[in-house]
Design a protein that fits this description.
Blueprint: E1 4-13, E2 16-26, E3 31-35, H1 42-49, E4 57-62, H2 71-74, E5 78-81, H3 93-101, H4 110-116, H5 132-144, E6 150-154, H6 162-177, E7 181-185, H7 189-195, E8 198-203, E9 206-212, H8 213-217, E10 221-226, H9 233-240, E11 245-246, E12 251-254, H10 260-272, E13 278-284, H11 287-295
Parallel strand pairs: 3-7, 3-8, 5-6, 6-7
Antiparallel strand pairs: 1-2, 1-4, 8-9, 10-12, 10-13, 11-12
Helix pairs in contact: 3-4, 3-5
Length: 325
């Protein structure tokens, strides 16, 4: 039995169909990323999985239970990381973790958990004085204090500094190793590419792609490099035998297997013109490229940036008493 099962899920807000037949599952010991632009139905899907919204049609099961009708049974076994709220401003990180731990019969050790998320040095600092990244790491600790079997992590690295990102990644890897099912939502696609085993991309309420990252990114390989902006890419394309394109100024893509001969030709062409070669990268297309092709430009990499679509958030009712667990 998968840890999470979603079968032809439909959720409506009046006449608006926010989720239109989404199907996917997630196993124990697996990180599954649910991605999509604003208004795609991603948030509504996750809220239904967490038991804060009721499905209009289809079937949803978490640990074999219905998250709406069996919400009370599921609460001790599921962890939810939200982006904001739920903590008293003057309460210290340590007190918050101990308070939330008291809600569970067998919580994790609070001191161990505080160290795990990298908050040991600010454990006694009031919440309102923590940086945004530290507050996010505290929210992660609160989501994990009850030893969940399924963890929903909403933008876990949003606003987190580089050191904190490493700590969050380590926590997610430890959850996977410990057999926890992690459902990850994020607009930071580089982080998703590092962490997720499988990816589900939704748009306009439907799944537009799903699978392991290698499957989504395809078998074709490519070469990316940085150099002076405005290269004579027509001449370079003829030299390399592949159509070179320039994306952001000074960043170039060669859609060809990055064999040594190709790299040598590129280096020679640049050397003949006394140009520097920088940031050479080889591999499959990035997850961000796949995302943009499937959902349109202007949405990937931006923290909840507008995609130009109307989000159902403006039309949906308030959350049913949603608080941190």
């Amino acid at each position: 039995m998968p840890a999470v099962e979603v079968d032809r899920l439909v959720v409506r807000y009046g006449s608006l169909v926010a989720v239109d037949g989404i199907t996917f599952d997630a196993d124990f010991g697996e990180v599954v990323a649910l991605l999509g632009p604003n208004g795609a139905g991603k948030t509504t899907t996750v809220e239904t999985l967490e038991g804060f919204r009721r499905a209009d049609a289809g079937r949803v099961r978490i640990l074999g239970l219905d998250p709406w009708s069996d919400h009370t049974k599921l609460t001790p076994r599921v962890g939810v990381l939200l982006q904001r709220g739920g903590i008293y401003p003057i309460m210290s990180a340590e007190r918050a973790v101990r308070l939330f731990g008291a809600y569970y019969e067998d919580p994790r050790d609070p001191d161990e958990l505080i160290d795990l998320v990298g908050l040991g040095s600010v454990a006694r600092t009031p919440y309102k004085r923590l940086s945004g990244g530290e507050q996010q790491r505290l929210a992660l600790a609160l989501a994990l204090i009850g030893k969940p079997r399924v963890a929903f992590l909403d933008e876990p690295t949003a606003g987190v500094d580089p050191a904190g990102r490493i700590a969050v990644r380590d926590v997610v890897v430890a959850l996977r190793t410990g057999g926890v099912c992690v459902i990850l939502t994020s607009h930071e696609l580089d982080e998703v590419q590092r962490l997720a085993d499988r990816v589900v991309i939704v748009d306009h309420g439907r799944v537009v792609a799903a699978g392991r990252q290698g499957e989504l990114q395809g078998g074709s390989e490519e070469l990316r490099f940085a150099a002076e902006p405005g290269l004579a890419i027509g001449d370079l394309s003829a030299r390399l035998g592949a159509r070179v394109t320039e994306g952001p100024p000074g960043e170039y893509l060669v859609p060809a297997p990055p064999v040594p001969a190709l790299v040598a030709e590129l280096a020679a062409w640049l050397a003949e013109r006394d140009l520097q070669l920088g940031d050479l990268r080889a591999g499959r297309q990035r997850l961000e490229d796949v995302f943009l092709k499937l959902t349109g430009p202007g949405v990937a990499g931006a923290a909840d940036g507008s995609s130009g679509r109307t989000s159902p958030a403006s039309k949906r009712p308030s959350r049913r008493g949603r608080t941190r667990r």
